[in-house]
Specification:
The chain contains 19 helices and 16 strands. Helix 18 packs across helix 19. Helix 1 links the parallel strand 1 and strand 2. The protein starts with 6 loop residues before the first strand and ends with a helix. 42% of the residues lie in helices and 13% in strands. The protein is globular, with a radius of gyration of 25 Å. The protein is of the alpha/beta class.
Length: 460
């Protein structure tokens, strides 16, 4: 849809916000209607249809919770399930804004916003409403689901992850992926890109842990010929290479404070300056970052800049460890067995029941990467076409416990049922955090909702 033909409704109890949006969109769309009282919302919608509705998360009757915005979102969607609603929220309410995406909102805007960002979100939303024939070339008309293109999994944590990524991907929100090593953060980043409006544009990866101070700026921002000893030619940095597409910054928690400052400057100014040049280069990227380190603990110790965290984590997604994914272990093992059998010109193997039990009981501290390695080794070294327990020798590089794993039961004490292990683990973590569910969920690698479900499951 062309923006100049769009009709937009803005619902916010702040007169200044309404005035600012109306002024900003005056030359961008055909009509802007503003409304301060959400009680009048349904009446306004009954008189006129709108292509996009901007809806505040909080009104004066319920400041800070976001519940009123969620309520009016539900009323809008009851009336028109295909309505396009963009929520207006504040930095401290990001988690509530993510709830709104799960409830059916199309996107959200964080205030105070940059006008350029506001317009980008509006234009991207209107483009999404355009007929399929107007899609840019190379964008699949019916993209595969996230589960198909990124990861396998039927477990509850994975279904929650799939749902969140399906909602977040079509937005322009910066995403911070958290999770242990080997949980599939790069796959999740690729899935976010493939489901975004930038799918036909570049997806560029930068492993920040591998970049020393000497090459950090050159790799990310580029350099000019002669800017340093080995600069024999001009080089385009990762930011410029990802222009109009997605830039994935892996291991962002490992960079030094000086590197953090340079990265923050580039993100704030939306431009980079190559080494040896004084000319800024504008950047247009969707940023996805990932780390396996406790980035908030680093921030509390002043080892990671809080203002940079605010820039990179408009939406935060935690990937679940393999030990919390139940039957997904068997599904993934069978998938890898077929893959490596074909690669090594062997028949597809079967698994003895005892082998499957052994795989499910292992804690998988190395997560999917460890499982993949174990299956590949078993397929190559197995004597026959049936994989037996003795075919699986777990890597000595992996510790038997994840970071902070003193709370895990000691298997040397005797056999334990997985349900008992999970129950005891949850109890010990909650006790360590004095009943703070948010902190306990974070340590366990779960969302608060997932942790509450486990509390109900174990009748705790």
């Amino acid at each position: 849809m062309a923006s100049n033909k769009a009709r937009v409704l803005v619902v916010d109890d702040d007169r200044d916000v309404l005035f600012a949006v109306k002024l900003l969109l005056k030359t961008e769309v055909q009509e802007v209607v503003t409304e301060r009282n959400p009680e009048n919302l349904l009446s306004v919608l009954s008189r006129q249809s709108f292509d996009v509705i901007f809806l505040d998360m909080n009104f004066k009757s319920n400041v800070g919770t976001g519940n009123e915005g969620l309520y009016w979102l539900s009323r809008i969607l009851e009336r028109d399930k295909d309505a396009t609603v963009i929520m207006i929220t504040a930095h401290g309410e990001i988690s509530t804004a993510v709830r709104s995406l799960k409830a059916g909102a199309t996107d959200f805007i964080v205030k105070p916003w940059h006008n350029e960002k506001f317009l980008e979100t509006l234009h991207a939303t209107l483009q999404h409403k355009a007929p399929k024939t107007n899609l840019p070339p190379n964008v699949p008309k019916s993209p595969p689901s996230f589960a198909d293109v990124a990861m396998l999994g039927n477990s509850e944590p994975m279904q929650e992850l799939f749902h969140t990524i399906e909602k977040v991907a079509p937005t322009e929100a910066n995403v911070l992926l958290l999770g242990e090593n080997g949980t599939g953060k790069e796959l999740a980043a690729k899935a976010l890109h493939q489901r975004s409006f930038r799918a036909s544009k570049p997806f560029v990866t930068a492993d920040l842990a591998a970049m020393s101070d000497g090459i950090f700026e050159s790799e990310l921002f580029g350099h000019k010929k002669g800017s340093f000893t080995d600069a024999k030619d001009d080089r385009v940095g990762r930011f410029a290479a990802a222009s109009t597409g997605t830039l994935f910054l892996d291991e962002i928690g490992n960079i030094s404070l000086p590197q953090q400052a340079k990265l923050l400057t580039a993100l704030q100014n939306r431009q980079v300056i190559p080494l040896g040049s004084n000319t800024p280069v504008p950047i247009d990227i969707r940023l996805i970052s990932a780390t396996n380190v406790p980035i908030y603990d680093l921030a509390a110790k002043n080892q990671f800049r809080k203002d940079l965290i605010y820039r990179i984590n408009t939406v935060e997604i935690t990937l679940p460890p393999l030990r919390d994914r139940g039957g997904d272990v068997i599904m993934l093992a069978q998938h890898f067995a077929g893959l490596y059998a074909a690669r090594n010109h062997k028949p597809r193997p079967e698994f003895e029941p005892a082998t499957l039990k052994k795989l499910q009981q292992h804690r998988w501290p190395g997560n999917i990467r460890e499982l993949q390695h174990a299956v590949e080794r078993a397929v190559i070294l197995a004597e026959g076409q049936v994989l037996r327990p003795q075919d699986f020798a777990f890597s000595a590089m992996e510790t038997p416990r994840p970071t902070g794993g003193q709370f895990l039961p000691d298997f040397a004490d005797g056999p334990l049922q997985l349900n008992e292990i999970e129950k005891n683990t949850i109890l010990r973590v909650i006790e360590r955090h004095n009943g703070n569910i948010t902190k306990a969920a974070k340590e366990l690698g779960l969302t608060r909702t997932a942790l509450y479900r486990r509390l109900e499951k174990h009748d705790l």
